From TrEMBL, chains A, B:
It comes from Capitella teleta (Polychaete worm). This is TIR domain-containing protein. The chain holds residues 184 to 358 of 384 of the full protein. The lineage of its organism: Eukaryota, Metazoa, Spiralia, Lophotrochozoa, Annelida.
Length: 175, 175
C-alpha cells in the first residue's frame, strides 16, 4: 500500500534524520533566545483533503513563517543536502501582543498523495487518496511507537479538518 | 506495495520539481562554462543491494563531487526549501587529463528500502527489499513514459551491480 511506503520513507528519510538533534538545534538558534513561548516539537499537519499549501502565511493571517532551523548532511551522493525545519510565529487574534512559536509543516508525503489523485497519471480516486492518508497515519504511529524510534519523540502528528477548502464536487463525493 | 509508493513520491516530490528546469540551471552554472564535457541529464543510480553510499568520493577515487546546481521553492509549509543537484567530476583512469562532468545521486528512495530491511522495525527481508526495488524501478519507468511526464526527459535510471560490497552472509542468502 502506497500510504505504508510513504510512512516508512518519511520515518527513515526524514524524521529519523531531523528529530534526534532537533531540540538542541532549536535551543542553539536565535528563536529560542527571543523569550517567546516556543513549542519545540515538530508538528506535521495532516490536512483531511491532503491539500498541502506551499506556505502557512497565505493560509492564516495569524501565522507567519519567520525562519528555519537547519542542518546539512551528505545523503546518497547528494553532498551536504540541506534539511530545513521552518519556524512559524502565531499571533493570538484576541491579543496581538501574545505570540508563540512552533516548528512544522503540512505533512509533505500527503502532497504526493494529492498529486497522485489529481495529476492525471496514477488514476487514484479521492476515496483512494483519503484511504491511503489514513494508512499513512496509522503506519507512522505504529513505527513511532517502536523502541528503536525512542529518539523521535519531539514530534506531533496533527490531523486537520480543512474540509472547508474542498470544492463542492468533493463535498458532494463525500456524501 | 512499498516500491510503488516510493516511485510516486520520487516523481511528484522530486523529479517533477527538479527536472523541468534542470538543463537551464545547468547551462547557467559555472560548471557548464568550464568547457569540460558535461552529460546534462540527472542520473539516479540503483545499487542492486539498495546500499546508497553517502557520497561518491569515498566509493571511487576517479569520481569527485565538485559542487551542485540548486534552487529553492516553498513546499508544504517549508519556506524556500532547498533542492541541490550534485555535480560530479569523473577522471579517466587511463588519462588523468580527461575529465567529464555528470549530475546525479544514488537513488535516494532505495536508502529507505535498505533501512527498512536493516533497521529492525519493518521486518523486511533482503528478498523483499530487492523485490520492492524492482517494483520501484518498473513503476518509475511507467510513470516517466506517460505524456504528462514529457518535461522529465533529462533523466537516466541506472541499475548498478554493486554485489561485490555484499557481506558473505548476503551472498550466502542469495544462494
Ligand atoms: N518537509 C520535508 N523537508 C525535507 O527536507 C525532506 N526531505 C525528505 N522529506 C520527506 O521525507 C520522506 C523521505 O525522503 P527521501 O529523501 O528518502 O525521499 C525523497 C527523495 O528521494 C527525493 N527528494 C526530495 N527532496 C530531495 C532533495 N532535496 N534532494 C534529493 N532528493 C530529494 O524525493 C523523495 C520524496 O520527497 P518529499 O515528497 O519531499 O518527501 C520526503 C519523503 O516523504 C522531506 N520533507
Amino acid at each position: 500500500d502506497i500510504g505504508h511506503g510513504l510512512a516508512w520513507s518519511y520515518y527513515y528519510g526524514y524524521l529519523k534524520l531531523i528529530l534526534p538533534g532537533l531540540r538542541q538545534r532549536v535551543n542553539e538558534s536565535e528563536f529560542a533566545k527571543s523569550g517567546t513561548p516556543f513549542l519545540k516539537k515538530f508538528i506535521a499537519i495532516l490536512p483531511e483533503t491532503s491539500i498541502c499549501p506551499s506556505s502557512f502565511d497565505k493560509e492564516d493571517e495569524n501565522v507567519k513563517t519567520i525562519g528555519a532551523v537547519e542542518f546539512s548532511v551528505s545523503i546518497s551522493g547528494n553532498v551536504m543536502r540541506n534539511y530545513k525545519t521552518a519556524v512559524h510565529q502565531v499571533t493570538d487574534p484576541r491579543d496581538k501582543n501574545k505570540t508563540y512559536l512552533f516548528l512544522g509543516e503540512f505533512c509533505t508525503p500527503l502532497r504526493s498523495l494529492y498529486e497522485m489523485a489529481s495529476g492525471g497519471i496514477a488514476g487514484l480516486s479521492n476515496e483512494g487518496r483519503n484511504h491511503q492518508s489514513l494508512l499513512f497515519r496509522e503506519k507512522l504511529k505504529e513505527i513511532l511507537g517502536h523502541p528503536n524510534a525512542a529518539d523521535c519523540k519531539d514530534f506531533v502528528l496533527l490531523p486537520y479538518r480543512d474540509v472547508a477548502v474542498q470544492s463542492s464536487s468533493e463535498v458532494h463525493e463525500k456524501e
